[in-house]
Amino acid sequence: MSLGQVQGIKSFYGHFWIGLAGLLISPARGILVFSPIFIFSFIYLFYILFTKKHDPIFKYLAVSVILLIILYAKWGMWWGGWTFGYRLLIELIPPLILFLALFWEDLIEKKLYLKRIFFVSLLLSIYIHSLGAFIYPSDFNYAPNNIDQHQERLWYIFDTEITRCTLRFFKQLL
Predict the structure, then answer these.
(1) Do residues 72 and 9 touch, judged by C-beta distance below 8 A?
(2) Nearest 10 degrees: Cα torsion 144, 145, 151, 156
(3) Does residue 13 or residue 134 have the better pLDDT?
(4) Which element (helix H / strand E) includes 23?
(5) What is the pTM of this model?
(6) Which of 130, 159, 144 minimizes the C-alpha distance to 27?
């Protein structure tokens, strides 16, 4: 019995670099596209890995984040099927928020230009997730064709779940 996608080692047949890029920056599923605020988290994650400033637990947490991303990069369906955003990486949100808080405390709050970039990326992240909460679903996953059979659409810049939901949002306003 299977409760979702096909389980087992045979499901890890994906092309690693495509999966990695997709999980991080795909216009239709990338965590850094749907939550640009986490750009700060990833910067700080790598800072933690290469400095001795923090408790070792943060290094282990950073390594676990990287290993989970590597694991899902090999998953044959890295985009998570019909969904809004980075479904497979949802477990990373708590540690990424922790790294974000540490980065804020260490550097962002002391630099005005970083605060401005931070707040713009925060507002953009809130906007995008509001689309997911209040406007989703659009027809992105199935029109003009099924996203599971046409993964090339996951890389289209101007036709994404975000753009389709934004258009629906503005149509509702008018």
Answers:
(1) no
(2) 0
(3) 134
(4) helix 16-25
(5) 0.91
(6) 159
